Amino acid sequence: MGVEAWYMDGSDEDQRKPHRLEPNQPVSLDELKTLGVFYWKLNADIYETDPELEKIRKEQGYSYMDIITIHQDTLPDYEKKLKMFFEEHLHLDDEIRYILDGQAYFDVRDKEDRWVRIAMSKGDLITLPAGIYHRFTLDETNYTKAMRLFVGEPVWKAYNRPADNFDIRQKYVASLQGS
């Protein structure tokens, strides 16, 4: 099957709910690609020795890797971090996440500045391009374990919106014109 994504409603209720429009407006993998978002489905049970993951890491130059477990029992400042992850922001580098267990959502802005929610579960690997406005939240299961991948040394700096003055943001917006 692949990943499921949809346009979000404008409701302010709990960020961990699905927030689908009625009727649902799905967003395809091809549509995500036009935003620079790429997706792979892998076998998370063998992530330590998975040749497919190794191949992707080699091809993309993902030299750095760590694992974060997002749950109230494992993450210090859990509530504060969840709020922070859900602030709309961008990074100067690609964001690469591989869900090893549990579930979560990535929300990204489309070309018309509408939110697209991407439902992530075990085995989903996603890359968000540098310069895209996005945010992250758990779903109602309140748990995910994710591998964070990075080219070179990781830089965890997020720039909350508005951050349109960054070259990387302008490059990203320009790349949308062509797609």
Structure, explained:
By secondary structure, the protein is of the alpha+beta class. The chain has one domain (4-178): Jelly Rolls (Sandwich), CATH 2.60.120. Helix content is 20%, strand content 32%. It contains four helices and ten strands; from the N terminus they run βαβαβαβββββββα. The chain has helices at residues 29-34, 51-60, 78-85, 167-178; strands at residues 4-7, 38-41, 64-70, 89-90, 95-109, 115-121, 124-128, 134-138, 144-150, 159-160. Strands 1, 2, 3, 5, 6, 7, 8 and 9 form an eight-stranded antiparallel beta sheet that branches. The chain is globular. The mean pLDDT is 96. Belongs to the acireductone dioxygenase (ARD) family.
Task: Briefly note the structural class of the backbone.
Answer: alpha+beta
Strand content: 25-35%
Do you know the CATH architecture? Sandwich
Q: So how many helices? A: 4
* Main sheet record: 8 strands, antiparallel
Helicity level, as a percent range?
A: 10-25%
- CATH superfamily assignment? Jelly Rolls
| N- and C-termini, Cα separation | 25 Å
The CATH topology comes to Jelly Rolls
Poorly predicted spans: none
The pLDDT mean sits at 96
**Tally of structural domains:** 1
The radius of gyration over CA amounts to 16 Å
Task: Tell the overall outline.
Answer: globular
Topology as a string of helices (H) and strands (E): EHEHEHEEEEEEEH
Name of the top-level CATH class: Mainly Beta
Number of strands: 10
